[in-house]
Amino acid sequence: MSADRVAMLAGRSRPAGGVVSVSVEGGDEAVGRVAVARSVWSRFLGLMGRPELAPDEGLWLVPCRSIHMFFMRAAIDLAFLDRQGVVVRQVPGMRPWSLRPFGVTLLPVRGAHSALELAPGALRRLNIVPGTRLNFTVPGTTDPHTSGRRVPPRTAAPRAGE
Questions:
Q1: What pTM, to 2 d.p., does this model score?
Q2: How do beta strands 134-137 and 30-37 pair?
Q3: C-alpha dist (Å) from residue 44 to 39, 41, 68, 90
């Protein structure tokens, strides 16, 4: 595995072109054009002022534990993911300027590391529910990886008598 690939898996670099493809582990369908927002400014702007997403488009906010719907022009489906790419909460059909369900947009979601904003109906179409693992693939590669996966730290072997 290349050093660039290891750095991306460890969350230290951006995918090439800032676009990934997202699929459900073990599923056939995918969302092919998901922009990656890693900077504070790109995460803040998100999809504000943008028209409705196409069915194969989305935005992956990394890191992100909460979102807002202020200044949005279209509804979205929303999935919060942990560091392994497992959905911890989903919110279908979030409307612009909406606070429904109350607190989801303003308060941090427990266990969330990133948020995936998709076109309305994408959660149902892809059968994404809490507990679903998502794979993120950089275009031009065949090696899927998951959201924010970190290279596990090496631990020392236990000493004698411990």
A1: 0.73
A2: unpaired
A3: 8, 5, 9, 20
